[in-house]
């Protein structure tokens, strides 16, 4: 419904300045929906609004033709490229992307839609080849290779498109392209963001030329190609190391000019990519780069060490050095082990944003190969989720999610709680990112993850650290400083997270969470396993809040409105599924009722005595929970309380006291319980009288039926009887009627009593 409404609006008002952004934010995220029908609907809408409105640049003549390019710019701005990538994949599988569409998109290259056009071309190229490559080479020579200033973002899209379509180039074009790129690499003039792709392309083209163009045998060709690649990559490494020795070696000057710093970035970046192609056991530059970071970022250099450079460089050079050290670390585990402590220091809060981001990237790459080495730094990595800089938080969250989705990083506590904390971030993009991961990825793989860690979350967010079971996954001091939600000031933040967790549980998970809260926290307080002071008070208060919340109630006990809406939307739902769901709900209801009778109410009663003894103000919270419980299980609770008149009187008094504070909200459940408890004997008497009344009325009804049948049998004889007998019969009927009226009056009198 939302997709349809937004689409109708944007099609009717394509010139509206703000509507396209609302449309993108409302429609695109639904591509990640687990429902296939929802995905298909969104893909259909995207095709209609974006693809079908793309025409050749010279044929654009209305606002609808401009709309796709506005939307694509917004997609890039909101960082929704992955969702658009997903849509392109589905379109390719469905045969939606035709040659004429590609031709129309290519016509926008070099216009004011240039970036968006290259973005679409690069995305489509991941799933299908573009046979027309002339425009790619033309743009590369004019705007990248021979240009004095290069648009980094656009140039990356162009080179990515060339890389994905290099097999469509002629052999002559490939050799010429490889020669130009190698020339830029050897002179260290290649744009910094393009160095990696330049080397990838040169590597591929060298292998292709050896095997296809020179027509060597397969085994021999691979060896020749490998030797050639090692040769030009080795030259790049040697050139870079000689330059670094001159700039940051033991005999180099401490001060480096800004021009030399720019050149250093080129050499250091090239060194890192060349090492990936041509690994070396002993790199002279390893210690040089390590010393550069220690001197510039960690202040670890010593005046006594005369064999080391003691200068400093700008943060940009350090950031590039971190990436290169990360690539070098991938070659040998021993090198990685020696560099991980340095990376940990670079994540310090004193470091600049680019230092932290690149350190996170380096550690993420290392984690894919040497997970155990990096795990010790996970607390430091998580602290970056709470950095003041938005880019640091955004990149850290993206990288951690990536590691978990690829199963390099297991979801353990307290990392899980740190991720939930990010739901409170002030940036909407981060909120959407973490919520999307939790709903569309994590809960799909681990359906019970919320209930599994719910009780522990109560201990964690209140920073209760002395429990024998739930206080094992403690935070480091650095984590506690930035992730703590303890105290009254953060109560609403904690409750928001609790509600979110409960909302994303199934009924059986909510039941389990309820049971565990009662057994582990409420009973824990009653049995003195949890100290009712400090964070223990807040812990119990949060537990009672969760138990009283609407979100923890089973779905069939919640408002029927939602169920009605769902029924309207799912009229064609599978009948077997409906029956299964009903049976499951019925079974859960019976189990829950049994649990209320056998466990919950006895625990509440015991806790009430404990809180009364301590004169704790939390009695009010406990009675609020009991009132909520009464709404669903009044009969079961009445049966328990009726067995103990003294207890019933106490509970009735407590409910009356707490009820006075909630009358303004119209909550009458407490009054119902108190009346039910105090009037239990009267109810029993009324019920007994009602049974007697029903028996008497039944006897009278049976007698009337018998008399009626008898009258019908003798009806034919009435005309032959004398008039005297008729008078006697009337007199008898009158007496019977008076007798019945007397009995009825007596029964009404008893009921009034």
From TrEMBL:
Pfam families the record matches: Cnd1
Location relative to the cell: Nucleus
GO molecular function, one term: histone binding
Disordered: region residues: 703-753
Compositionally biased tracts (Basic and acidic residues): 720-753
Entry's Gene Ontology BP terms: cell division; meiotic chromosome condensation; mitotic chromosome condensation
GO CC field: condensed chromosome, centromeric region; condensin complex; nucleus
Domain Condensin complex subunit 1 C-terminal, residue spans: 355-510
UniProtKB keywords: Cell cycle, Cell division, DNA condensation, Mitosis, Nucleus
Family annotation (PANTHER family): CONDENSIN, CONDENSIN-2 COMPLEX SUBUNIT D3
Protein name per the record: Condensin complex subunit 1 C-terminal domain-containing protein
Species assigned in the record: Laodelphax striatellus
